[in-house]
Amino acid sequence: MNSKNPQNPTLRTSILKSSCFFSILLVVIAVFISFIIPQTNYIKTQYLNSTISPLLSRISRVLGFNRAIILNPSEPATESPNLLSNHCLLWMAPFLSGGGYCSEAWSYILALNQYSKTTNLRLSIWQHGDSDNLQFWEGLPLEMRKLASELYQTQCRPKESIVICHSEPGAWNPPLFQTTPCPPPNSRFAIGRTMFETDRVNPEHVKRCNAMDMVWVPTEFHVSTFTKSGVDPSKLVKVVQAIDTEFFDPIKYTPLDIPSLGNLILGASSTGSNSRNPFVFLSVFKWEYRKGWDVLLQSYLKEFDSSDQVVLYLLTNPYHSDTNFGNKILEFIHDSKLEKPINGWASVYVIDSHIAQVDFPRLYKAADAFILPSRGEGWGRPIVEAMAMSLPVIATNWSGPTEYLTKVNSYPLSVDRMSEVINGPFKGHLWAEPSVHNLMFLMRHVMSNPEEAKSKGEKARQDMMDKFSPKIVANIVSNQIQRILDKMV
What we know:
Oligomer: single chain
Shape: globular
Number of strands: 15
Helix content: 25-40%
CATH architecture of the largest domain: 3-Layer(aba) Sandwich
Radius of gyration: 25 Å
Largest sheet: 7 strands, mixed
């Protein structure tokens, strides 16, 4: 700076205020425009990415936020009100992506934010492990979006940080695909949070697990399969998932109008003026073979016909496939040589439109029973959501769900045999083949015994509150973190 012409401090303050004001104003204008331009997801995503993201980066620089210190720990960083000398818990997960790891990560963050007992620890989050999903972000409750912004702005120095890499091990540093490296270099303590849906962990992932200081898994099933696969048992800790039993509370909601959202694939419409209210089965899953949609369709279409006053709703989305689910179902029926009943097919609807997170309790409220005959689950988040909503649940009695399914709180679906995974990254692993005949029996039994089913649903909700509520899981996580902090002192 030229000493003969020093910069006026008042002028600098004015420039800073103006820059901040106009940056915020541009963001507001950009958001407003995003609601009046054509509302396709592609256009909105491209527009927001190209317009708002650079402006938010500019505002971050003006206000002093510097996330670069996470990825470039060698660079000096200026102190800020959110950068203190005490320890930091940096939770890196696909917070903006939707899906299993995303919802699980949010369950921990919300629990810790409300109930954590570890007062000498700051909490920060960072997107990692998957791409952003604009629809998912827009569907989050406003309070969650505000919390995300607050925690994102909390800075963590790696040397002060306990880092949780909440993703599949292929995303851990060095990642096997493009994502934010986790853990960042020079992190004080690194925890991998992961799970698998088969009977083992592949050798590359075993190596990555053993490179972590600790590995958190959600169930005893995973402690066993990870240990048998070669993961150091001294690194393994069971940390169950949280289910927000206050959010998923059946007394708070009215049913969602799911007939208006579904596409009728088979059978007659369930909304005709002469039809009674049918018994509603609901299943929620990604369209992949592991989820057992073929087992579900085969069992349902063999057990019921149009005279049974029953309907099956499938809320699904593509998984490395197209979205023509109706054709896939018709092709499956043809290839399976299922014979059309004399009275006609029982009704099947597909819901492939996006349902916002805030509406999921109303979705479950619209059903009479929930079914997921999966071949393997890490945890089975839709299952516990349905249980928290007091729904009777039919789910495969193998893998992750064995942590919470009992004969008192649900209808555990038996397994006929184990089968080999024939393609994909888990090729050669084993997973379960749920029993078609047992599923047929259980669906008919649930429909025919409403009082028993209601009792199981009520017990399911009570178990979710007693064992997996945010307060309970926050205590579990806080205790684990405190043990680590005690060793770090």
